[in-house]
Design a protein that fits this description.
mainly alpha; two-stranded antiparallel ribbon; two-stranded antiparallel sheet; 7% strand
Length: 211
């Protein structure tokens, strides 16, 4: 998954393609485009998702998601105080090092990125699978779909002619539905993989699911 056994904060920050990828993540998080983000921006994802589902039926799942989202945001270095993209990228680099340790010790499912992705999918998907429509709700709730870009080459982003959700689903091999573990692996890979020259893929180099 990563190019080194124990990547450091400095190693993540020294890779310009990884940094650029995190800058794009910052843009999706910065929903009001004021060039600052805080913990409230992550919690806004939960509020957005609540509006896209039957909140009464998903009350328990939404409550769990809000708890996990708060942990997730704080792990990335977010608080009530607004921070810049520079501070955000450094915070995510520190988070990525901890996530890699969790991955080494317990596998992908033990990373907070996986738990966050799982909690979000619990709101919009059935156990084990997620539909294209359900995934589109996730990308819309996190403001990714509205940005409508893909990473056609490492560090080179381009506007797409279809929704980001449709692009991701197609590139990951989905049609009407997809195993949730594919989305989880993609999300964890997005944060933990340090890109290498010559690779391609929407969220960085393509990866192989473990057998």
């Amino acid at each position: 998954m990563a190019t080194e056994k124990q990547p450091t904060v400095e190693r993540f920050l020294s890779d310009r393609l990884w940094v650029h990828r995190m800058e794009q993540a910052f843009k999706s998080l910065d929903s009001d485009e004021d060039l600052y983000v805080s913990l409230s921006d992550v919690l806004l994802w939960v509020d957005n998702l609540e509006k896209l589902v039957n909140a009464d039926e998903k009350k328990k799942e939404l409550a769990t998601l809000r708890e996990v989202a708060k942990r997730y945001g704080m792990a990335e270095g977010l608080s009530e105080e607004k921070i810049t993209v520079y501070e955000y990228v450094i915070g995510v680099a520190k988070f990525a090092v901890k996530e890699f340790k969790s991955f080494q010790e317990g596998g992908i499912e033990e990373t907070l990125s996986a738990k966050m992705t799982n909690a979000m999918m619990d709101v919009v998907a059935e156990p084990g699978f997620i539909t294209a429509e359900g995934y589109k709700k996730l990308t819309s709730a996190t403001n990714f779909d509205t940005k409508n870009y893909t990473e056609c080459e490492p560090g080179k982003f381009t506007v797409t002619t279809q929704s980001a959700a449709e692009t991701i689903f197609a590139q990951l091999g989905g049609a009407d539905n997809m195993e949730r573990k594919v989305i989880i692996h993609s999300q964890v890979h997005f944060f933990l993989n340090i890109p290498s020259p010559g690779t391609r893929g929407l969220l960085g180099p393509k990866f192989e699911l473990p057998q």
